[in-house]
Design goal:
Blueprint: E1 8-11, E2 14-17, E3 20-21, H1 34-38, H2 44-64, E4 73-76, E5 90-95, E6 108-114, E7 124-130, H3 135-147, H4 149-157, E8 164-170, E9 173-178, H5 184-194, E10 200-207, H6 209-214, H7 218-229, H8 231-237, H9 248-251, H10 259-268, E11 270-275, H11 281-292, H12 301-311, E12 317-318, H13 319-328, H14 339-353, E13 359-361, E14 367-370, H15 376-385, E15 390-391, H16 392-401, H17 412-427, E16 433-437, E17 440-443, E18 455-459, H18 466-469, E19 471-479, E20 489-497, H19 499-508, E21 515-520, H20 527-531, H21 534-537, E22 547-548, E23 555-556, E24 562-569, H22 580-583, E25 587-590, E26 607-608, E27 611-612, H23 613-626, E28 640-641, E29 644-645, H24 649-667, H25 672-679, E30 684-685, E31 690-691, H26 700-719
Parallel strand pairs: 11-24, 11-25, 18-21, 21-24
Antiparallel strand pairs: 1-2, 2-3, 4-5, 5-6, 6-7, 7-10, 8-9, 8-10, 12-14, 13-14, 15-17, 16-17, 19-20, 22-23, 26-27, 28-29, 30-31
């Protein structure tokens, strides 16, 4: 999607494209326009225009960056509503997870900057940047370069292309050298200048305004490539000279602590994780499931690429973007150093050696699409290559949605069914298709399926039914003649399989791999109503024993390679009240609050304005246990923001006042005396029984009041002077 200046305008502070208000998520591509480079002068409205454009740029970059940038913090420069010093440049920065110290200002950022007043006419800068205010990081960089001069020089030499390294105190006081021309003396100059406070450092690639605009949407790929090339330098300068870039797979390792759960699951086939709210039961279930399927066969890189291009309706994509989507969608894990090159090689080899290849090589280097439209036969092959076995109705639906079929006057679903049926009949073992059941087909000798198909998740609730879980009768509106829009319609009642039946049928045709069904909130559903006859055959020694299903009258069994993990909140309902028949068919393990998880991005105990979150959680739960409510403790996730402990005092106040206090009120069932035994005289105005007003106001004073209240509570809780009884 290439856009021009006329496509864009700012109305009442909001960006419009073709006259329509812009929503960033609607944009999959981005290209620079002349107006971008003319909108950085010191005028408020033009600065606001560029700020809004950079929001779109940030969104598109996030969609295209590799797993090395997952969970990055993104900063887009001024203007803020209160900003009055309009500047002559605009920038955005990506701070990779785990690359900064106590705050985000200490990061070495990956930046994109528009700077039209650059003296060399290099209006667009793409770089690795250290801000002059990042004193901690500057000193760490100084030590790194001083103590590892040879490693630093080698890292710079490995950055291919025309890049520059620079160091400056101001625009008029800087040294910039092309990396290919650096010498030992320049390294010494860097070391000497880094000793001075306020020094800025960068490794940069330049583009002129004309170059940036002429590249169109390809500028995104070039920015992404630059960021990737600069990762080793970032790791080194942050104090990790020998740290290698983590792959997507390695980001999700460290599974040793789940080994006991896996042993239980392997033994019982079924496992329930139970515990208080907020202890990470669903997160743990996901991790166990991921580890359980880790040894499963994987989809080939070629077939993964087909899946991504099919999802893109056959339109061309750069091979690096194809690879990024493969990993992001969980089709494969990045278990090799350069998966993008493997994808490119496999596609090129398929095009070269396979006359029936589905791939289409674009005239633009490194971009691939699909050869569509296709015949009915080839379209069915393509769909079944990247999917499990499917009913021909579903194959037809995919073909229509992805515009795969050549136009014909025939009814597409009936034609597909006929083509596949005739091919199996006429060609026998030589047919690529195999009939699984009536109307359902697969491909013979298909190598690998999508990893995300090995894990299914469902959440039980009071109205969840057997019909959704196993099978039920559904009404469908059909036409007497599908080829005529005006054809008479009628209601047909069909038996449709539910999520668990479909899951088991897929697993039964793939016995060499493990399949995991996660049932969240398993105790909230009507177990006997949902499971029906399954209650017997999910047991480990009843696997593969068939039962007859009530609606379809088909024989059904649960395969050996299906594993079930349920999660259960003990504060919602005691585990003792779980359906007894279900309870004895599951192993059970308790997931309790774990304060040690409350750490910051540097793997240190989370401390917010001198409040230690680990101590706070431990003190709260100690008071809860003292009154006999062990199953109703507060989980660690209530004090977390994503994967890390809360790091702002206002966020901690909001979590405590609006999440934790209401939960404690529920636990005490309106008994004020019991609540006082947990939190003492703190946080609540016991005359009105409301949260104290000073903890709900706006401004800095409210946070100071909250901080004082927390500290007083901690002293009281640790004193052991409260009148309580031990309920352990």
């Amino acid at each position: 999607m290439s856009t021009t200046n006329e496509d864009w305008e700012l109305k009442e502070g909001k960006l419009h494209f073709h006259g329509n208000f812009v929503k960033n998520k609607n944009f999959k591509e981005f290209n620079f326009i002349k107006k971008d480079f003319k909108s950085t002068i010191s005028k408020k409205e033009e600065a606001q225009f560029l700020h809004q454009r950079f929001k779109i740029l940030a969104h598109v970059l996030k969609e295209n960056l590799s797993p090395n940038f997952y969970e990055s913090e993104v900063t887009i420069a001024h203007p803020k509503p209160s900003f009055s010093n309009w500047t002559d440049f605009q920038w955005l920065g990506f701070s990779r997870k785990g690359t900064f110290a106590n705050n985000s200002k200490e990061t070495i950022q990956f930046q994109v900057t528009i700077h039209p007043k650059d003296k060399q006419n290099n209006a667009l800068h793409v770089d690795l940047w250290l801000d002059g205010k990042a004193n901690e990081t500057r000193l760490r960089m100084l030590d790194q370069i001083k103590n590892n001069r040879e490693i630093f020089s080698e890292i710079l030499k490995n950055i291919s292309g025309t890049y520059f390294i620079g160091i400056q105190k101001s625009r008029d006081d800087k040294e910039i050298v092309e990396i290919s021309k650096i010498n030992p003396q320049f390294i010494e100059n860097i070391i000497e200048r880094l000793t001075k406070k306020g020094t800025e450092f960068f490794i940069r690639k330049y583009y002129s305004e004309e170059e940036a605009i002429n590249q169109g949407t390809k500028i995104i790929n070039n920015i992404v490539d630059t960021f990737e090339k600069l990762i080793p330098a970032s790791e080194f300068l942050n104090g990790n000279p020998n740290k290698k870039t983590l792959t997507f797979e390695e980001e999700n390792q460290s599974m040793e602590k789940y080994s006991e759960y896996l042993d239980i699951l392997n033994w019982e086939k079924n496992l329930i994780l139970y515990g208080p709210p907020g202890t990470g039961k669903t997160y743990t279930a996901d991790k166990i499931a991921q580890e359980k399927i880790r040894k499963n066969k994987q989809m080939t890189w070629k077939n993964c690429a087909l899946s991504i291009l099919l999802d893109n309706k056959g339109m061309v994509l750069p091979y690096k973007k194809i690879t990024q989507r493969i990993i992001k969608d969980g089709l494969r894990t990045s278990d090799i150093p350069t998966p993008e090159e493997t994808v490119r090689r496999d596609i090129d080899e398929d095009i070269k050696n396979n006359n029936d290849s589905f791939f289409l090589k674009s005239s633009t280097r490194g971009e691939y699409g699909l050869k569509i439209p296709l015949t009915f036969m080839d379209a069915a092959k393509l769909v079944l290559t990247v999917n499990d076995s499917l009913h021909y109705d579903r194959i037809t639906e995919i073909c229509k949605n992805k515009n795969l079929l050549k136009s014909s006057g025939q009814t597409q679903d009936q034609t597909l069914n006929a083509v596949i049926t005739v091919d199996i009949k006429n060609n026998g073992d030589k047919s690529p298709f195999i009939r699984i059941s009536s109307g359902t087909y697969g491909l013979k000798n298909k190598v690998g399926i999508s990893r995300k198909r090995y894990i299914k998740k469902v959440t039980f609730h009071q109205s969840y039914s057997y019909e959704e879980f196993m099978e039920g009768i559904k009404a469908k509106i059909k036409k007497e003649d599908e080829t005529r829009e005006t054809s008479k319609r009628f209601v047909d009642y069909v038996v449709e399989p539910g999520i668990f039946r479909r899951f088991c049928e897929s697993a039964g045709k793939d016995m060499e791999n493990s399949y995991v069904m996660i049932i969240d909130e398993i105790n909230r559903g009507n177990i006997s109503k949902i499971f029906g006859e399954l209650i017997t055959i999910i047991e480990k020694d009843k696997r593969n024993d068939p039962v007859t299903l009530p609606y379809s009258r088909k024989s059904f069994s649960v395969p050996d390679n299906v594993y079930i993990i349920g999660t259960m909140n003990t504060a919602d309902r005691s585990i003792a009240l779980l359906d007894t028949a279900l309870k004895r068919r599951f192993g059970h393990t308790e997931i309790m609050p774990d304060s040690s998880i409350l750490k910051d991005k540097n793997d240190k105990s989370s401390i917010v304005d001198s409040i230690n979150l680990q101590e706070l959680l431990n003190s709260l739960n100690k008071k809860i246990r003292e009154i006999g409510m062990r199953e109703r403790q507060i989980g660690h996730s209530y004090l977390m923001n994503g994967k890390y402990g809360i790091d702002k005092i206002n966020d901690l106040r909001l979590a405590f006042v609006y999440d934790i206090l209401p939960l404690l009120r529920d636990f005490s069932l309106g008994d004020d005396e019991e609540l006082k035994r947990i939190i003492g005289e703190f946080f609540i105005d016991w005359d009105t029984k409301n949260v104290k007003d000073e903890l709900k106001q706006v401004g800095n004073d409210v946070n100071e009041s909250f901080k004082a209240e927390i500290k007083n509570f901690l002293k009281w809780a640790d004193s052991g002077s409260s009148n309580t009884q031990n309920g352990e």
